[in-house]
Amino acid sequence: MIPAILLMLGIGATCGIVLSLSSKIFYVYEDPRIAQVENNLAGANCGGCGYAGCSAAAEAVVAGKEPPTVCIINSKEGVEAVSRIMGVDAGAAEAPLSYNLCEGGNRAENKYHYMGVSSCKAMTAVFGGHRVCTVGCIGLGDCVKACQFDALHMGPDGYPVVDDAKCVGCGACQKACPKDIIQVKTLSEKLMEFNQEHGALAPCSQTCPAEINIPKYISEIKAGKYDEAVQTIRMRNPLLLSCGRVCPHPCEDMCRRGIEDEPVSINQLKRFVADYEMNSGSRIPITCAPDTGKKVAVIGGGPAGLSCAYFLRRIGHQVDIFDAMPKLGGIIRYGIPEYRLPKKVLDWEIQGILDLGINAFTQVKFGVDFGLSSLIASGYHAIFMGIGAWNDYALGIEGEDLDGCYKGIDWLSRFAGGQEMKLGKTAAIVGGGNSAIDCVRTLKRLGLEKVYIVYRRTRNEMPANEVEIVASEHEGIDFVFLAAPTRVIGDENGKVKGLEYLQMELGEPDASGRRRPVPIEGSETVLDVDMVISAISQAPDPSFKDTDPTPKIKDLELTRWNTIDNNPETLQSSIPYIFTGGDSATGPSLVVTAIGGGRRAARSIDLFLKGKPVEPVENSLQGKNIPESIFKKVDGITPIKRAKMPEIPVSERLDSMIEVDLVLPEDQALAEADRCLNCCRICYNPDTEFPIAK
Amino acid sequence: MGDLFVLAISCIFINNILLAQFLGNCPFLGTSKKMETAVGMAMAVIFVLVMAGMITWIVDLYLLKALNVEFLRTVSFILVIASLVQFVEMFLKKSIPGLYAGLGIFLPLITTNCAVMGVCLINIKEEYTFIQALVSSFAYAVGFGLALILFAGVRERVILARVPKALQDTSIGLITAGMIALVFTVFRGMV
Fold first, then answer.
1. What is A393-539's CATH number?
2. What pLDDT digit, counting tens, does each position of B81-120 carry?
3. In what residue span(s) does the 4Fe-4S domain sit (chain A) (predicted)?
4. Does the ipTM exceed 0.90?
């Protein structure tokens, strides 16, 4: 008995001594901060940070490889304690959340027979994971099984639904998903996502220049969740009230229902929820990421500038907008007349953006009141130039400087700015674009007897929005097609008394695919008018290059159309810290294109501010369509009439600038939302069941 | 030499520690879901088992047998093996950081691995010489690794099979282990 006890004591003592000695001999210096940091991590060993346990994560923090926010489930106090130990600022701890890209699980079930396989991983390994399409959710819930926090559940439609309140953003679901559909992203990352070739995108979303998730917001309208629909649109487009009114909706041209039926009235639905928010009397709160401490100057408060400022602010940067005009809005305030976009609506919309904490300085012109050097001296880290395209092209014909001759945007902006305009009795507006239509419809409202549109091609080639052309026809505008102005005729006092034009005929198609008008010799005709407005496109005003005293501004390269030369994928100009977007980058284009450009520039600016290389989005779609998602025919469609846009009768609208187009009533909006097939890349919800090849 | 070879073969295949003796089942099921972890575990077991086999043989001969307290074998082996693993961990961390980085997280797991304990006790029970004990420890460990890696390979594929709901995950794992064990019975009577 005694020897046994002694032996055990002996072995114990020996082991103890050997271990304590060896811990001295084999002592490896470890930063004492590692243990301290580890004590302040969550201690769950969950691996959410990507390291093997908390001690490994602590080592990475002390080694400076990870920020104090490495632990994804750590409390605020914990992060602060770690920051104190490391002696650094905690920085922005933006909570990542899991979200599901695919919402088509319900459709997959009836198209695919599962043959007993019960995990997504197996499905992917055995059959390549095709259910309906290559990118969609398989719906067997590997992610749900992987979630340790009970934040993921299989929803009623057969695809996983994330409970944002429980999700800690650990990324286990993302790892478990073999299709990369469940993704863990921060708000900033979601705001800065762009359409990619492999994306789960409906044809409408592919086409939208602002890349709005259209099926998602329409299905939210369908479910009566108008607030969520507004938020979905705001992820991509901050100017939904304006776009809902003036967007020519290229998305609707690609609507899959439009192949067999009339397309869904996507833009009216956007307007419906946008107006719903405005009329509800309260603003839906917009969340922003924590401050990054970086400052960006946005020159130009038009759609591109507002969009860029909005997205930069939402991802946590400080933004100041500078605008030459008395009020923000740019071309959508000064170029689009009141009857299309009431100023009250625009004011409300812009105020919502400024309320995020954006400062606006108006009536300051770049190159005159401030310049590049003053911006840099004021501590701005990057500059966005969205100066628009405000210089009207001249017709280049005789008599263009007579009294009574005006230029489109110049005239519209002066009128919108409240200037007293001298009016004649009859007017000819040269051009076939939206500006020309805006001029004629405004003039008609100002009481002119006769208003002509003089366009050198035919109605089919007019670049203006179809609805605008139809509206001006209703309002009694006279169209003079196939007419090329040759001379403005003045009277003895130097006032306009007529516009001479040559009649044309259509010849061979040109580079744009439109048939080229060819003049008919000797067909000069005179139109008796006392006002001529030329609205034949515009270019950016490059005068800042001469007036800005900063020598560096000479490095800013312009194209031969005076647009700011830029990389179309990143919108970075020839000066690395200057980015551009909107009309000043593309030449005159759509509001929604400028909004998309503003967001793309915001992404590049964000990369630039973080010191990362400003690289394009990989496999960026940029408005192209994914071939497999463009169908020739669509099965299972029952034609249903598209909602008709309500508008004020012509008799009531011509004597004022009152808004012409009205918002859809709720019941019609819901019916219209029901017409949406909720498409994705290749699947959709048909109206009727149709036989599926098994 | 021939005897040692026969001993090794019998330890690896015929008396495989996992599939014939059914020792060390916790890591067998726990670390066999992924090939990567299975390989790491196998390497760590080989390393520790060889060390433990030698030390315990010496402890048994010069302490337990000498003092005639063989009844303390189990408890003293636990103490010795646990201390050994701790020691090895410290040693590796200092001297061979590369190896430590590879085996580090598996070493503490082996402290309580019954396959290690079992092999040490078998070595004593079969009255092996030191060389024989060394060979058997190494061979048993190789057998452990072999079974674990085979099993991990099978398990990685099992998810592709149509497994009834009630038998998913660990259940099918145990069934698979049983089948592999059955297959290993063909080695019976080879030596």
1. 3.50.50.60
2. 888 888 888 888 888 777 777 666 677 767 767 888 999 9
3. 29-88
4. no
| A298 membership: H or E segment, kind and range | strand A295-299
DSSP 3-state percent helix, strand, coil across chain B (nearest 5): 80, 0, 20
Rounded to two decimals, what is the model's pTM?
0.75
Structure tokens at A627: 């071939």
Asked whether residue A507 carries a pLDDT value surpassing 90, the answer given is no
**Predicted local confidence at residue A46, as pLDDT:** 63
Res A566: pLDDT: 92
- For chain B, say whether A28 makes contact (Cβ under 8 Å): yes
Q: Return the CATH architecture of domain A295-390+571-609.
A: 3-Layer(bba) Sandwich (3.50)
Beta strands A152-154 and A160-162 are: antiparallel
Query: Which of A338, A342, A343, A309 has the alpha carbon at shortest distance from A326?
Result: A343
Q: Which residues of B touch A13 (CB under 8 A)?
A: none
Name the CATH topology of A31-90: 3-methyladenine DNA Glycosylase II; Chain A, domain 3 (1.10.15)
The encoded tokens of residue B4 equal 């040692």
Q: Residue A479 has what pLDDT? A: 92
Tell me the two tokens of residue A14. 């020996």
SS3 A424: coil
Mean pLDDT of A248-265: 91
* b/e map A31-40, b = 16+ CB within 10 Å: eebbebbbeb
Q: Which residue on chain B is closest to A126 by alpha carbon? A: B160
Task: Determine the distance in angstroms separating the CA of B45 from the nearest CA of chain A, rounded to an integer.
Answer: 20
Q: Could you give the CA distance from residue A114 to residue A140 in angstroms, rounded to a whole number?
A: 10
Torsions phi, psi for A498 (to 5 deg): -175, 160
Q: Per-residue pLDDT for A90 more than 50?
A: no
- Which DSSP state fits B32? -
Q: Using a pLDDT cut of 90, give the percent of chain A over it.
A: 39
| B64, B86, B163 ranked by CB distance to A19: nearest | B86
pLDDT at A296: 94
CATH architecture of A94-185: 2-Layer Sandwich (3.30)
A173 labelled ligand-binding:
yes
